[in-house]
Amino acid sequence: MSASQSAVRSRAEAVKVSRTFDWMILFTLFFVVLGGYHIHYMLTGGDWDFWTDWKDRRLWVTVAPIVSITFPAAVQACLWYRYRLPFGAVVCVLGLLLGEWVNRYLNFWGWTYFPVNFCFPSNLIPGAIVLDGILLLSGSMTLTAVLGGLAWGLLFYPGNWPIIAPLHVPVEYNGMMMTLADLQGYNYVRTGTPEYIRMVEKGTLRTFGKDVAPVSAFFSGFVSIIIYFLWHFFGRWFASTAFVSSENI
Amino acid sequence: MAATTESVKADAAEAPLLNKKNMFAGAALYIVFYGWVRWYEGVYGWSAGLDSFAPEFETYWMNFLYIEMVLEIITASVLWGYIWKSRDRKVMSITPREELRRHFTHWVWLVMYAIAVYYGASYFTEQDGTWHQTIVRDTDFTPSHIIEFYLSYPIYIITGVSAFLYAKTRLPTYQQGLPLQYMVSVIGPFMILPNVGLNEWGHTFWFMEELFVAPLHYGFVFFGWATLGVMGVVNIEVQAISKLLKKDLA
Questions:
Q1: How far apart are CA B15 and CA B19, in angstroms?
Q2: Cα distance from B69 to chain A (closest Cα, Å)?
Q3: CB of A40 within 8 Å of any CB in chain B?
């Protein structure tokens, strides 16, 4: 190979080639990250995300942000620190939401016939925008972890409140007090997931009533800060370009 | 003059840098095939997939399993064998333009890998959740598993290993050793398939109900993280392509 030879015929072709690669890279990154993020999220927080009667004021608010800040932190560590692209978290969340919505519609509804207003996914977009915004404005991993991580936890419940509120309205049914979401769960029976498995509204703090969700969100934000740090460094490792000798394998 | 004419002729006869037809045909193949699979699930999941002791289960689901396994082994052997057998033994001597063309072909493989990973890790895995949370399992080989574990996972493994082999046998960039993150992004998701052993063992040993966040499933999670190795692949590729285009983009 001669060093003087060029791979392209003209500058125009070089620009075109570069743009084409950009699209192919973005497509691949989007869908591979979607796959990894989705399998991670569905198996660490999925049950709270699948069903409205799992979307409670305690465990959903605590678990979902903690397990979902992982991939955004890792992808930011690559896209921002290598390319100064400030959309790592939003790309991850858009991918996850696309995967979830396609599934909830075509499979939860299309195959097992649960109505979509019983199995729609949680909204993670507000936290993702704030996480990317803080990184863009500060350029600091530490500040993004501390402020962004805390915001990620705190914004989750308010970000979902307009969607879930109508289903948290109390109803009386056969002399029992429950929410509309509970009622959905009783009517759309999941034979493989009996009621004793449902983990909602546990713990003594719920007796404080209105404080449950904010306290859970605050705790979730605290853990999200730590998880952000951890996954930022995971992201740096995954983004490395090292080669190893085949003798070491 | 003569030399210019020859050069123009050569350009006209030259294969395109990116074979878009191959890329769109490949993508269509996955999408149409999985569309058909989803149709099959819809029709035979409920009508023949609820009782593994029923004769129709054997007809529509176990036979599906046997056929797909045989076809996957044949496809992997032929495809990987072909890529290896037809490898370039003078890979360091290719022209920069040929190298660029091969990078494009490599990216066509990676785009296919992305589609295959989406269907395996996202579409069919969460679909398995709704199936099990609705239908009580009475076998390891449920309709959703026959599609998820034994069809969609082998397909992304076959595609991912093909992409890796293509890069390793045809691109100068990958001759300096084994790219760590490339291996992570292919071998990690591959390990999800052996992890099915743990999953099935646990479900038959401990519980038949479906709690998706059960610790039994964390093996899938751990190996799913390995998809992030694609960021390392992107970075290696960006460096290599930038090197090829740097002079012309300056």
A1: 8
A2: 23
A3: yes
Yes or no, beta carbons of B232 and A240 under 8 Å apart: yes
The CATH class for the domain spanning A21-236 reads mainly alpha
Examine the predicted complex and report whether its ipTM is higher than 0.85: yes
Backbone angles phi, psi at A8, to 5 degrees: -125, 165
Place of tokens 């300096």: B176
Looking at the partner chain, which of A24, A234, A249 has a beta carbon nearest the beta carbon of B111?
Answer: A24
User: Does the structure show a pLDDT above 50 at B3?
Assistant: no
Mutate to test the interface with B, among A39, A71, A196, A237 (most CBs of B within 10 A): A39
* A25 phi and psi angles, rounded to 5 deg: -65, -45
**Cα(B26)–Cα(B124) distance, rounded to whole angstroms?**
20
DSSP chain A: --TT--SSSSHHHHHHHHHHHHHHHHHHHHHHHHHHHHHHHHHHTHHHHH-GGG--SSHHHHHHHHHHSHHHHHHHHHHHHHH--TTHHHHHHHHHHHHHHHHIIIIIITTT---HHHHPPPP-HHHHHHHHHHHHHH--HHHIIIIIHHHHHHHHHHHHHHHHGGGG-EEEETTEEEEHHHHHHHHS--TTS-GGG---S-SSGGGGGGGHHHHHHHHHHHHHHHHHHHHHHHHHHHT---EE-GGG-
**Which residues in B lie closer than 8 A to residue A194 (C-beta atoms)?**
209
**Residues A78, A88: contact at Cβ < 8 Å?**
yes
Note whether A145 contacts B: Cβ–Cβ < 8 A: no
Non-local CB neighbours of A192 within 8 Å, separated by 6+ positions: B132, B133, B134, B135, B136, B137, B208, B209, B210
Minimum distance, in Å, between the CA of residue A42 and any CA atom of chain B: 7
* Nearest C-alpha in A relative to B19: A20
A236 touches chain B (CB under 8 A): no
| Residue A208: pLDDT band with limits 50, 70, 90 | low
Which residues in A lie closer than 8 A to residue B229 (C-beta atoms)?
238
Task: At A133, list the tokens.
Answer: 């915004």
Predicted structure pTM score: 0.94
pLDDT of A247 above 60? yes
Measured distance CA(A39)–CA(B111) in Å, rounded:
19
Domains of chain B: 19-245 (1.20.1050.50)
How much is the pLDDT for B207? 73
Q: What are phi and psi of B42, to 5 degrees?
A: -60, -40
A94-151 tens-digit pLDDT: 999 999 999 999 999 999 999 999 999 999 999 999 999 999 999 999 999 999 999 9
> Tokens for B203?
């479900």
What is residue A5's predicted lDDT score, i.e. its pLDDT?
81
Distance between CA B178 and CA B2 in Å, rounded? 45
For residue A110, the one-letter residue type is G
Taking the C-alpha atoms of residue A239 and residue A234, their distance in angstroms, rounded to an integer, is: 9
